[in-house]
Structures are given as structure tokens and as C-alpha cells.
Amino acid sequence: MSNVIVIDHPLVQHKLSLLRDKDTGAKSFRELVNELALLMGYEVTKNLPLKDAVIETPMQVTTVKILENEKIAVVPILRAGLGMADGIMNLIPNAKLGHIGLYRNPDTLMPTSYYVKLPIDIEERETIIVDPMLATGNSAIEAVNVVKNANSKSIRLVCLIAAPEGIEAMQKAHPDVDIYVASIDEKLDDHGYIVPGLGDAGDRLFGTK
């Protein structure tokens, strides 16, 4: 089954608490999401493999450690995932950025992709899918389906907040995908919102409500 990694660093938890506050405005909300994505990125990338390289410092030639493979793709789920993309990209500036847009089919109520743009060499890359909320899990499952169909070699999912129902659905659908979250909340309400949650992340990011 998928590993679920809860990132409980004090700075992550502090910023997440500010993010939850209903009085946090759109500007501060965007800044906090960006900062949280960057902080969580350290944990998400800590197991990337290293290799030896020889360089010359001002003092002498020495052997150092560098990334064995810098081929990483960051893929936000539109639209709320855009808020996390810059934070990860600031941490890994050589990563390439993809996008997956999803909408809910009115007949099946399941997510359907309306826009997919991935790096042309996605099959050679470690893919980090980002979306602030893992609620029912349906959107994340479909996004992973899209990336797997493009033959990405390894996939990680990074969310700020998750509901137990979403984690269970993801683990059932994609047991090979590790899930990184800052918090596992109590449950989903009758409308599919995470409780206590932080409201609609997309609306709060872009000031659309």
C-alpha cells in the first residue's frame, strides 16, 4: 500500500494553522501555500538518489554529492494546484512543469481531464503531483492515471490536507504512489468538503468567493 507521510515540522504546522483561519485573505493565503509547498518539498525530495562528482573548490579538488537524476516534473492539478507549483519549483529550479485540468462529469460525477500538458520526456522523470486538498480522492486518482498513461517512472502526490476517505481511495487505486500531507483531518462532510479543513482552496487562492 502507499506510504502516507505526515510532515509535522513546526513551521509547516504553524503556517497550516494560519492557512485554515477564515480571516486569512487571498494574498496571505497564496503566500502561505507557496511557503508550505517549499517546506514540504524538502521532505518529498529527501530520498532522491545522489552520486559522486569531482569539483574544485578554492582550496582543492574534492568529491561531492550531487543529484543522480535531475529529471523531475512538477504537475499541479488545475486550478488550486497552481498555488503549490511555484514553491516546489523554487526548490527544484531545473524541474519541468506540467498541468492537468479536470472537471466533474455531470452525468457520472467523476473527474474528466479537459487539459493535459506534460513534459515531452515525462517517462524519464520523477513526477510530483500537487493539489492542496485530497478530499474524495477522485481528482488525484485521475491525475495519477493520466501521468501513469504517459509512462512516468515514479509518482509522488503532495497535498496540504487530506481526508481519511481520500487517502483510502488513493491507496486502493494506486498503492504504489506515496502520499505526502501536512495534516490528515477528521472526515468529509455531506458536501464532500474536508472537516475542519480550510474551505475551498481554489476560491481562497484566487479570491473568487
| Amount of helix | 25-40%
Helix-strand makeup class: alpha/beta
Regions with little confidence, pLDDT below 50 for 5+ residues: none
Encode the helix/strand succession as letters.
EHHEEEHEEEEEHEHEEEH
The major sheet is characterized as: 9 strands, mixed
Q: Report strand %.
A: 25-35%
Number of helices: 6
Mean of residue pLDDT values: 92
- Give the terminus-to-terminus CA distance: 37 Å
* Global morphology: globular
Total number of strands: 13
Task: Give the C-alpha Rg.
Answer: 18 Å
Written overview of the protein:
This protein is α/β, with parallel strands linked by helices and 209 residues long. Helix content is 33%, strand content 32%. It has six helices and 13 strands. The chain has helices spanning 10-20, 26-44, 82-91, 138-149, 164-173, 201-206, and strands spanning 4-6, 50-56, 61-67, 72-78, 96-97, 99-104, 111-117, 126-130, 133-134, 154-162, 178-184, 187-188, 194-195. The strands form three sheets. Strands 1, 4, 5, 6, 7, 8, 9, 10 and 11 form a nine-stranded mixed sheet that branches. Helix 4 links the parallel strand 9 (133-134) and strand 10. The radius of gyration is 18 Å and the shape is globular.
